[in-house]
Amino acid sequence: MPTKGELTRENILGIAEHIILQKGFSGTSIDEIIEAADITKGGFFYHFKGKEDLAKHLMLRYQVADDRFFNQLFDRADSLSEDPLQQMLIFLKLLAEAMGDLPSTHPGCLVASFTYESQQFNEDVKQIVCDCIVGWRQLFIKKLAAIGEVHPMKIETDIMELADMLTSVIEGAIILSKAFNEPERLVNQILQYRNHIRLLYGDT
Q1: pTM attached to this predicted model
Q2: How far, in whole angstroms, is CA 21 from its chain's centroid?
Q3: Which of 49, 109, 127, 156 has the fewest C-beta atoms lying within 10 Å of its C-beta?
Q4: Angle at 56 (CA atoms; ends 44, 46), nearest 5 degrees
Q5: Domain segments of the chain: what residues?
Q6: Could you report the per-residue pLDDT of 123-156, keeping only the tens digit for each?
Q7: Is 111 within 8 Å of 133 (Cβ atoms)?
Q8: If one looks up domain 50-200 in CATH, what number appears?
């Protein structure tokens, strides 16, 4: 069971992420986070050395949560089919459904937000951001490589580029959905990528 200190720390991180996704890292002050979290300044600095330390732990937290999210969806997809292509198609459908179940537009992505403001961060934070993206790439490559062992591509395509394309689709679609205030944009773009995979590997 989490301790009171752990719950306070998690609360600070959750509130900080929410504000940063709305206002950007540079536009968010420690005082604003302290007020929203209803803690003292001493309480904040008990958990974090400063704003950059907060950024580091936000990214570490995001990395763990994101890995868990994707792996849970892949585990579910894998349990529903033994065919790697069908597993990927199911995963993409589950991903689209998860995005469609959000109460409003996707709040945004810390990886994208921190990349846009990379000049604000030290090398440790930048490396965690990069590690997140590489982690997505490696996970997607693993699944795409398994498909290729059973289903040859109809058009020869580099699977690293195909893996990165999914990252680009998700991140770009988040921007579209927020810009137009249309949550379905994210869902539809994921389903378009799903159609691309079906056509590429011949599942029509």
Answers
A1: 0.93
A2: 13
A3: 156
A4: 20
A5: 1-48, 50-200
A6: 999 999 999 999 999 999 999 999 999 999 999 9
A7: yes
A8: 1.10.357.10
